[in-house]
Fold:
Amino acid sequence: MNLEEYFQRIGFHGPHDKVDLASLTLIHKLHVMTIPFENLSMHCGEWVTMDLEDIFNKLVRSSRGGWCLESNYLFGWVLREMGFKVTMLSSKVFNSVINDFAPGEDHLIYLVEIDGKVYLADVSFGVSSQIWEPLELISGKDQPQGAGVFRLINKGEIWILEKTCRKPVVVNPEFASSSLVNKVQTFQIYCFTLEPRGVEHFKERSHFLQTSPTSLFTNKSICCQQTPTGFKVLVGLIYSVVTYKPEEGVDILDMRYITEDELDEVLKEQLNVRLQKKLMPSNKKTCYKL
Structure:
């Protein structure tokens, strides 16, 4: 494990020891544009560990992505190695079915302190809820990015990340009423407290998310790659290319079914993922929005 390999993976050519907001912002954006958000291992018969060396080998050396317990964990290691002051936190993801935050603290995020200011770093949420750049931890401030306007709201001990998005325009009428299409303009993404966490806090949740029949990740195989104009994502056998059109106030969703014969090509050519084992795509009914 070394920073040079990681920087080659994401295409970063700056200094390794510059601890400032510009460096954090650039590395954050390069990471989300290069390393996909994906949970394909559990649909290939592979077990996802929280061993940092395993994660490094997978995400940096093996043309793979990962979920937050891998990708964000790796990102935190990178920031510490560079000299940033970081704090690992846990968060609860909003579930629109129960109209509340899920009970489990499943999502790993970081706070980064620079020159007396604090920023939220999260390189592994995926789809249109993915922030491309760190968000300043300040309540109520609109922070526009490619995907829309993000906002952190402080409610006492709890902080909430929310987003206001644009109107979705679905190209293929077959998917106009798809449950994957988000129709809510402003929605909550997750909530968190400022209580520091260690990696041990997430190991039980990692096991649950990989084994429980109620887990999003056992029900859906997901691979999402951010792009300079939006993102590409494969959910089961539904492949979508989403293009942000802020000047028109819309997001264009080009969605289609692919065949299992097309899986490898789409993964390699469109999503930059190369699998060692056969993927068993899954898209069972559970709450998930692009």
